[in-house]
Amino acid sequence: xxxxxxxxxxxxxxxxxxxxxxxxxxxxxxxxxxxxxxxxxxxxxxxxxxxxxxxxxxxxxxxxxxxxxxxxxxxxxxxxxxxxxxxxxxxxxxxxxxxxxxxxxxxxxxxxxxxxxxxxxxxxxxxxxxxxxxxxxxxxxxxxxxxxxxxxxxxxxxxxxxxxxxxxxxxxxxxxxxxxxxxxxxxxxxxxxxxxxxxxxxxxxxxxxxxxxxxxxxxxxxxxxxxxxxxxxxxxxxxxxxxxxxxxxxxxxxxxxxxxxxxxxxxxxxxxxxxxxxxxxxxxxxxxxxxxxxxxxxxxxxxxxxxxxxxxxxxxxxxxxxxxxxxx
Length: 328
Fold this sequence. Notes:
Elements: E1 5-11, H1 18-26, E2 33-39, H2 46-56, E3 60-64, H3 71-79, E4 86-89, E5 95-96, H4 100-110, E6 114-124, E7 130-133, E8 140-143, H5 144-151, E9 160-163, H6 164-167, H7 180-190, E10 194-205, H8 220-235, H9 240-264, H10 270-286, H11 294-297, H12 308-327
Parallel strand pairs: 1-2, 1-4, 2-3, 6-10
Antiparallel strand pairs: 4-9, 5-10, 6-7, 6-9, 8-10
Helix pairs in contact: 5-7, 8-9, 8-10, 9-10
């Protein structure tokens, strides 16, 4: 018989974190699961650790990729091997509480119309200290479209167990690239009959080596994914509230990425700097300022100005004075 849950673990050079991740699965109070572990062409001991775990526990299977394609692509490769009724992602540097899968199973039984079960995200630092958790006042139940709208600015998070049939549905262009999971999880919510917010703990480690947090030109892909989200909302007629939320979120993320790239430019080659500037300008032109509130459009840090060169000059001015005040 197929297991109730398939846990997908995509790992790339994660040997320092994997033991805790794998041990958290082996300690689950619910035994009815399989773990599909995908080594994304690691150069450290990641593959050896995964194979060692699989040799000791038949619930663990290993998929070894010959070329590094990123976490999203690795998860897609693992998803094709999934046999569980539900599929849930677990990053190689994160971990579950012993009761996580048991709590998900209880929610699935209580809400048979649910297609997505959201985990309770608990942020931890490199020392294992909790930095914060989502407020949990009881299980929340949302219609799919409502959950999608709430997830645009992560009012509800995107870490969820998804019915396998839904997880295997057609994916957007961003599915196999960095930050692609952000849009995929939102689309899962949109296509769900019900989305249930559970108390199942997911411990999310935030550290400097994380691919989604490290300063890099790869963060420009974040903007592409957000542009796709805008297109999805418009194509599916999700509504004005979704459009407003999306535009504010996209504008906020654009400003943050622009500032990161501004700091990164001196370390790039001439060709890389040109590419970064062209990409940022292109995404700036995609912003729909008419969907931003007056407070946002005229805010000091979120001020929207045209042309793009004038807006860049304003941002550089803010950074200049911020650095002066920091030195005082």
